[in-house]
Amino acid sequence: MNVKTRQACRLQTGFTLLEVMVAMAIIAITLIAVYDSQSASVSRASEAKFTVKASLLLQKKMAEIEMMNAEDISSDSGDFGDEFPGFSWRIDVEESSIDIIEDLSVPLKQIDLTISWGEDELYSYNMRQYLFSPE
């Protein structure tokens, strides 16, 4: 091998600073996208976990309400104790009616039930139901 060939081989081996910087930028963009995707996935998993628990707690609370006499149902709030820490419920009750035909209306109670979780009620799950309320 002559001297010129050895110098040419030395010049062509390795990466230039520009190539390294482009490769690092591509890696950084890829890692940011992966991190963002992972963060969104964890957030969606938390929301799904809350939705499943809240819907079951809502059904439980609504079953308790339906077992009560219509005149005993009133607005109230509370929590689910140590069994479901961080979960709270709120019931808002309003008198309502539906006019079936002229001069005939059916008395109802509009019940809005909200299940919340977290500080400042980060997540909430709502349901509205109407119960017959004989006068």
TrEMBL record:
InterPro entries: N_methyl_site, Pilin-like, T2SS_protein-GspI
Membrane topology: Single-pass membrane protein
GO CC annotation terms, alphabetical: plasma membrane; type II protein secretion system complex
Localization (cell): Cell inner membrane
GO biological process: protein secretion by the type II secretion system
Key words, A-Z: Cell inner membrane, Cell membrane, Membrane, Methylation, Transmembrane, Transmembrane helix
Coarse class of the protein's main subcellular location: membrane
SUPFAM superfamilies, alphabetized: Pili subunits
Pfam short name (any one): N_methyl
Transmembrane segments: 12-35
UniProt xrefs under PANTHER family: TYPE II SECRETION SYSTEM PROTEIN I-RELATED
Family from the record: Belongs to the GSP I family.
NCBIfam families the record matches: IV_pilin_GFxxxE (TIGR02532)
Protein name: General secretion pathway protein I
